User: Which sequence fits this backbone?
């Protein structure tokens, strides 16, 4: 296996274009290029090529993991799943997750706390926060600690209703506002309490959470 061409300028992801003599192309990070001393005309034995490919795949998973973690809050399980969905090998995905964990860049408890903080800032109810934790594949054993200080949302609900309803007799406007709050994960009970405090009619709303 011979390298026909090696571009000296990386792409937007920091990878270098490598053309092989059989027509295949590779995109390798600088570390792989330097570790294997690659240059145009270099001959690679089958064993060297296999080792280079394996190293490149492991590094690819790590670099993709860093990009994902830098962009959003993810749990270990979600990160591993997303890496595999992007085409990384399961073993490389698992190794990348362990690597970030060892570097203290991936911590499910901290991620859970960040997710809950985000939910609070968005005005979500407790039910919606739990749904987000589930969607982010945070272990349920960590939920209680993350949700322990979830604030009462009555004041925010009341403020929201006041901003959306100008005429208490407009049942369509009331229903739209209530439906919006339900989608945010607030309970019927809490919404009823806010409606009652504002002297709005709550007869058609259930007592159940």
Assistant:
């Amino acid at each position: 296996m011979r390298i026909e061409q090696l571009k000296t300028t990386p792409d937007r992801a920091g990878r270098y274009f490598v053309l092989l003599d059989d027509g295949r192309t590779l995109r390798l990070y600088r570390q792989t290029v330097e570790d294997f001393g690659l240059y145009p005309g270099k001959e690679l034995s089958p064993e060297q090529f296999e080792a280079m490919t394996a190293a490149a795949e492991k590094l690819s998973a790590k670099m993709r993991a860093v990009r994902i973690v830098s962009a959003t809050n993810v749990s270990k399980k979600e990160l591993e799943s997303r890496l595999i969905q992007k085409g990384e090998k399961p073993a490389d995905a698992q190794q990348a997750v362990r690597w970030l964990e060892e570097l203290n860049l991936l911590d499910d408890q901290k991620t859970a706390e960040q997710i809950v903080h985000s939910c609070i800032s968005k005005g979500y109810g407790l039910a919606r926060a739990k749904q987000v934790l589930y969607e982010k594949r945070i272990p349920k054993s960590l939920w209680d600690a993350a949700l322990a200080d979830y604030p009462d949302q009555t004041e925010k609900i009341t403020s929201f209703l006041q901003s959306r309803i100008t005429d208490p007799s407009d049942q369509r406007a009331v229903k739209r506002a209530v439906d919006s709050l339900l989608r945010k994960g607030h309970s019927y009970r809490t919404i009823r309490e806010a409606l009652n405090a504002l002297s709005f009619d709550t007869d058609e709303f259930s007592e159940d959470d």
Summary: The two ends are 67 Å apart (CA to CA). The chain has three domains: 3-102, 108-147, 154-197.
